[in-house]
Description:
Layout: H1 3-12, E1 15-19, H2 23-34, E2 38-43, H3 46-52, E3 58-61, H4 67-72, E4 80-83, H5 89-102, E5 106-110, H6 114-122, E6 127-129, H7 131-144, E7 149-153, E8 158-164, H8 174-177, H9 179-183, E9 185-192, E10 195-198, E11 210-216, H10 217-225, H11 234-241
Parallel strand pairs: 1-2, 1-4, 2-3, 4-5, 5-6
Antiparallel strand pairs: 7-8, 8-11, 9-10, 9-11
The chain binds adenosine-5'-triphosphate.
Adenosine-5'-triphosphate (ATP) is lined by residues 19-25, 42-45, 48, 63-65, 84-88, 91, 244.
Amino acid sequence: MENQETKKILKKMNQFVVIGLGRFGKSVATTLTELGKEVLVIDTNKDAVNQMEGMVSGAVVADATGTDVLHSLGVQNFDCAIVCIGKDLQASILTTLICKDLGVNYVVAKAKNEQIKKVLERIGADMVVFPEVYMGKKVANMLINPSMNEILNLTDNFKIVEVPVPDSWQNKTIIELDVRKKYKVSIIFVRRENSVVTIEPETTFLKGDVLIAAGESNKLEVISNMTSEVIDASHCLKDALEDK
Length: 244
Ligand code: ATP
């Protein structure tokens, strides 16, 4: 699918069916609901479905590997299906295939590795995601550098990160510090308590500020080495490391 076409499709999507309510599926379903979308969840596990009842538009106990089952639930009328089955590879492949065969416009599938990704793409998945691989990288990076949280890896060497304001920058303005010239990084925003502050030359950095900064990896590391604070990524670590 062309990028332009994909973007148009993604922007118009309103009705989602989430199949499989493990940690990933639950998180996708609740986030889509919070974003105001209509979400139907399906799982073979009654307890998992009961937990989601009332939180999403619809919750059904069903085996998604049956074409008739998915058809009778009207899955073909949804804009997007997200197949969040990990362990049972056969179920994941069959469900993805059935969703495509039923004519769901956009099917996202979760994979555990590159080989499974290839299979899922070959049978028609429009997008394949690796939540464990992504989270594993994020956690490892945070453990190695707890003062920096990577938001975006633009190239191998150029990133956008969150980093607590260096101690020596507190109560100084960006112009006084001459950040761009001296440190060769751009501060895009400052996260202050629960809001985001746009940067003006006269913006004064305060204790507790978290900088959203862009630049080369080694330059960003210099900044992160200047702070005594760590990024509060406990929510991330908790989700990634906690057992079910
Ligand atoms: P997590 O997102 O927690 O990492 P996981 O990748 O380990 O999950 P599983 O636990 O295998 O994935 O499956 C996630 C959910 O998918 C489970 O709640 C399971 O009951 C559900 N599931 C598995 N097979 C089917 C199926 N055929 N139809 C519907 N739901 C299914």
